[in-house]
Amino acid sequence: MGAAVALAALAGLTGCERGSSAGGAAPSATGPAGCPAALAGAEAAVRRAERTDTVWNGPTDGPRAVPGKSLVYVAQTMTNPGVAGTVRGVREAVKAIGWHVRVIDGQGTPAGIQAAFGQAVALRPSGIVIGGFDPRLTSQQVARAHADRVPLVGWHALDSPGPSEEPPLFTNITTRVGDVARISADWIIAHSRGRAGAVLFTDASIPFARNKSELIKKELATCSGVRLLAEENIPISDTSGRTPQEVSGLLARLGDEWTHSVAINDVYFADAAPALRAARREGAGPPYNIGAGDGDPSAFQRIDSGQFQTATVPEALIEQGWQIVDEFNRAFSGAPASGYVAPVHIATSANSAGATSWDPPGYRAAYRSIWGK
């Protein structure tokens, strides 16, 4: 979601619509499941995604460490928790492989990111990370790096994982949006036992977010007992100003029919909390909220303390930082990209053990073994 957040912040988005409500009466959240087959499938998917005893399913072979390399990480903004998490992972990994990295903060503005990228190119590093922004916003700087044969690796730079010819990225690292959308909707189906009145929070001005929300709706629709009561279109750049008012309106209009929520990013629930608290809703009660976003530390804290968020679908940010370094090592060695895409995970208070991020086991040892370190 990092690139989507960047696009919202960078474009100074306008045209903010009020949330539109889906018609029809909401179902009761009690009684037998309204979709036995869909419920069974959702429950199985959720059980798999909630596991924390997973084994490393990423690369186990590849080129040995190429010595003496330097990277520059161009960050959309270091206030973006997803970007900051991957920076932490990159710093860990370059220390392990024996390289150097410099981080340049784009400060979340088009001019700032363009200047940061220009500075990165001028430093003539071995490789450049495009951290959380669309490289098409810096097309001149990308073209310069490409002409200088400096490989580019993106994190949330494009909608899809893997290599890209236009813009020219050795690879882009992100989870698959379809997987994230499906598992967040499956969680609602499973948690409600197939009987829910749901609200979806999205930002329709961002193509990535709009696509994610459409996929969430498609999966929710597989269960006839789950009704979409409202879809609230609130730009990410305006969540703090808009979300409390919209949530208050939803509470007045929907009352107890509103049992569950899903948002394309956890930030909506940070901003929904004051309105829910003012309405004397209990933090651990309905509406039960899941974020289909990065899984930043504040989301884990809300989940662990039972404060108006029940689950999140987090990215393994530090692991992805290590993957960034491994992908560069493959580029420097003339090897193809690994093709690895991390599986989706669901974090709840029952499985997070008080952690503030999703940090699966096994990847550090695997990458060290590949690099001969």
TrEMBL record:
Domain Periplasmic binding protein positions: 73-327
Transmembrane segments: none
Family annotation (InterPro entries): Peripla_BP_I, SBP_2_dom
One Pfam family in the UniProt entry: Peripla_BP_4
Superkingdom classification of source: Bacteria
Official protein name in the record: Sugar ABC transporter substrate-binding protein
Native source species: Streptomyces albireticuli
